[in-house]
Amino acid sequence: MQFIDLKKQYQRIKEDIDARIHKVLESGLFIMGPEITELEEKLADYVGVKYCVACSSGTDALIMPLMALGIGKGDAVFTTPFTFIATAEVISLLGATPIFVDIDSDTFNISPVLLEKEIIKVIDEKNLSPRVIIPVDLFGLPANYPEIEKLAKKYNLVVLEDAAQGFGGRIGSRKACSFGDISATSFFPAKPLGCYGDGGAVFTNNEDIYETLKSIRIHGQGKDRYENIRIGINGRLDSIQAAVLLAKLSIFDDELEKRNLVAARYSKNLSSKLKTPYIPYGYYSCWAQYSVLTNNTENRNKIQLKLKQNNIPTAVYYPIPLHLQKAFAYLGYQVGSYPISENIAQRIFSLPMHPYLNEDEIDFISNLIE
Predict the structure, then answer these.
(1) How far is CA 39 from CA 54, 111, 200, 292, in A?
(2) DSSP per position, 193-205
(3) Distance between CA 157 and CA 147 in Å, rounded?
(4) Residue 370 burial (10 A CB sphere; 0-12, 13-18, 19+)
């Protein structure tokens, strides 16, 4: 059994993917070919924003907006410690300071209540300038943007939505990548909408930011490739990856429906055995992962071992919260700094999740869990 079955997906749209890739090969336009513009237009339309800038990875999709905002030394950027390192890594790469905020114990997303406390603390200490909030749409569930956006307005902060796992999720009619001032997503192959390599995209309604992002993406380019008006990066998306994404986008909504059916069956089967994912009223998850909680680490290990013995893969996202990672030791956090994240990290694990899991497979997995 596959944790994420990309082979079944490929077989479904093989003809379309092969034709699109072959078209790129025939054209020879491997860098910034017409597929890039087509993809950007379709993604912006799908999300419901004015502008989209495709780029080379989800990490670049996070660092490019921070560069466009001029984030650097002396700036405080608020985010969650319960996420992949890229979210906080980009803050440190630019010389700014990550300020971690603990999570909500039900959604695993950044807590707005604790966020305001951290904002006030930074303001009172006067050592850093509060600039940006980076909420993460963990496992496909949008963060609490109604409350986060209120806090951003109250304290004059920019919201950069990290929807690396969240593309396809929504709150009411608003889709992921339309929240805050700027948003970023990843097209890493394991994502709900993934390419066949690395890829990402940035979304915004701000024309000035859009123009700056396009420049940063190509080494700070100005009017032509040999005029450089700012420091930038090599952040371009390959045409072949755009071709793959265009093919996958055509079945994306159908796959989202199927992911939600898989999640619903898991939850029905497991709700009496484990703590299953909580989806607040009005929220819609794209189910990048289906993650459950056990009572303790020992119980988790036993369940994972039994599943492994039956050739069922599992994963732990995330075993070590970011504030306890060696890379962030310089920040001075310790065990106990963010108790909710630390507790969840010891109990959480994820089950196979993709649109092509059938009911028999879901039931087989569920029945092995006691």
Answers:
(1) 8, 34, 11, 34
(2) S--SS--EEEEES
(3) 13
(4) exposed
Closest CA to 47 of 124, 112, 137, 147: 137
CATH of range 6-249; options 3.40.640.10, 3.60.60.10, 3.30.1360.130, 1.20.1540.10: 3.40.640.10
Quick one: tokens of 203?
């979304």
Contact yes or no for 300/349 (Cβ under 8 A): yes
The stretches in the chain having pLDDT less than 50 are: none
Domain 252-368: give its CATH architecture.
Alpha-Beta Complex (3.90)
Q: Are 205 and 156 in contact (CB under 8 A)?
A: no
Query: Which residue do the tokens 């999720």 mark?
Result: 169
Residue 10, CB-side half-sphere exposure with 13 Å CA sphere: 11
pLDDT tens by residue, 61-75:
999 999 999 999 999
Buried-state track 109-126, b at ≥16 Cβ within 10 A, e below 16 = bbbbebbbebbeebeeee
Structure pTM? 0.97
* Edge-to-edge strands, sheet with 170-171: 174-175, 170-171, 283-284
DSSP helix/strand/coil, 131? strand
The answer to whether residues 44 and 52 touch, using CB atoms and an 8 Å cutoff, is yes
What pLDDT is stored for residue 354 in this prediction?
98
